[in-house]
Amino acid sequence: MAIGILLVGGFGTRLKPLTNQTPKPMLPVGGLPVTEHQLLAAKKAGITTVILATSYLSEVFIPYFGDGSKWGMQLKYAVEKEPLGTGGAIRNAAELIDLEAAKAEDEEFVIFNGDVLSHHSIAAQLEFHRKNKADITLHLISVEDARAFGCVPTDDQGRVTAFLEKMDNPVTNAINAGCYVFSPSVISDIPLNKVVSVERETFPNLVNSGRPVFGYSEQSYWLDIGTPAALFKGSRDLVNGAFAAGEGTTFGPDSLATGGSSIGANCEIGQGVRIENSIIGDNVKIGAGALIRDSFILHGSEVQADAQIVSKYLSPTENLEISPA
Ligand code: GTP
After folding, report:
1. pLDDT in tens, 92-140
2. Would you say the CB of residue 176 lies under 6 angstroms from ligand 1?
3. pTM of the predicted model over 0.85
4. 9 Cβ neighbours under 8 A, 6+ residues apart
5. Cβ(25) – ligand 1 distance below 6 Å
C-alpha cells in the first residue's frame, strides 16, 4: 500500500500571528488540527504509514500524534534543521523508508501539502496514477478565477503539458490542489539535503523532459487554509451550524455562540458570554460578559470578564490584531 508524506514544515507566514506558536497544520479547524483531518483522509484511502516532514516548530507534532496508534496508523517524523523546500522535504522524509524496496514493489508515495482540506478520493487518484503508469499524478481543482494561482494545463488524456506561472489570462482554470502521487523512482532522483521546490523545479523539469506527469481532476470540497480568512472559513464549513464545542466544555447561563464558531474541549464559558465567528482552543477560560468576535483564542488562554476581543489573536502570552486577509 502507498506511503503518505505530509509536508508540515513551512513557516505559515501569511497566517501570522496565528502561527507564532502553532505550526499552520496544527491550527484547529472544526475542533481538530488540519493534520488530523488529513490523516483521517489518508486512512480512508487505506494509507496507514505516514511520515510527517517537519521543520518550523517540529516539536509540536510528536506530543499530539505520537506513534499514530490512537488512529490505527504508523507515524514517523522527519525533521529538517533548516526548511528544505517541498522537494527537499519529500526526499528527506523518504530517508525513513527503504526506497529500493519501495521501487522493487512499485509502492507509491502520496504527498500532502499540510494546509489543505480536501474531500477528493485519494484512492481514485492512486488508481488513475497506476492506470497511466505515471511518474507523478497531481490532484487538480478548477477554480473560478485562476489569476491568483499558477495553472496546470492538461491534454485530453489528463497528461500535464506545462506548469504556468500566475498570469492575467490563464489558459485553464485548473490549479495544483496540493496532493500528489509520486512513483518511488522520482523521489530517489531528488537530491538529498538540498533545498528543492517540487512546484518550481521537479514538476516543470519532468514535464519538459517528456516524463509522464498526469493531472487527476476531481471537483469536490477543497480549501487552502493559508490565510486567516480561509482558516475561519474552513472551520465554519466543518462546523456547519451555529457552533460546535468539544467534550467537557461548559456554558454559563445566557451565553451564546454563533457564526459557525468552534470551541475546543474542557473550556469554561462564563455567564452572558457572546462568541461569534471565532475559533477557540481547548482549556480556555472566558470570564462573564466577554464578547469574542472574528478571533482566534489559542489553547490554555484566559479571557477576562467583560473583555471585548474583536479580530484578535489571543494566546497565554500574546494579544495581537489579526489583519483582514
Ligand atoms: P507561507 O509562509 O504563508 O507561504 O506558508 P508555508 O510556507 O508554510 O506554506 P506553503 O503554502 O508555501 O507550503 C505548502 C505546504 O508545504 C505547507 O503545508 C508547508 O507546511 C509545507 N512546506 C513548505 N515549505 C516546507 C519546507 O521547507 N519543509 C517542509 N517540511 N514543509 C514545507
Report:
1. 999 999 989 998 998 999 999 999 999 999 999 999 999 999 999 999 9
2. no
3. yes
4. 23, 53, 54, 55, 56, 58, 80, 83, 84, 89, 114
5. yes
Q: What is the 23 CA–ligand 1 centroid distance (Å)? A: 10
The dihedral through the CA atoms of 299, 300, 303, 305 has a sign that is: positive
Pocket test for ligand 1, best of 56, 80, 86, 116 (most atoms within 8 A of CB): 86
Same domain, yes or no: 176 and 146: yes
- The pLDDT tens digits of the residues spanning 254-263 come to 999 999 999 9
Say if residue 219 is in the same domain as residue 266: no
* Residue 323 pLDDT: 82
Q: Is the CB of 11 under 6 A from ligand 1?
A: yes
Same domain for 53 and 198: yes
Ligand 1 within 6 A of CB of 89:
yes
Q: What's the average model confidence in pLDDT over 276-292?
A: 97
Ligand 1: which of 11, 56, 180 to mutate, judged by most atoms within 8 Å of the beta carbon? 11
Let me know if residue 261 belongs to a domain: yes
**pLDDT at position 68, please?**
97
Ligand 1 contact, 9 CB (< 6 A): yes
Dist. CA 131 → ligand 1 center (Å)? 30
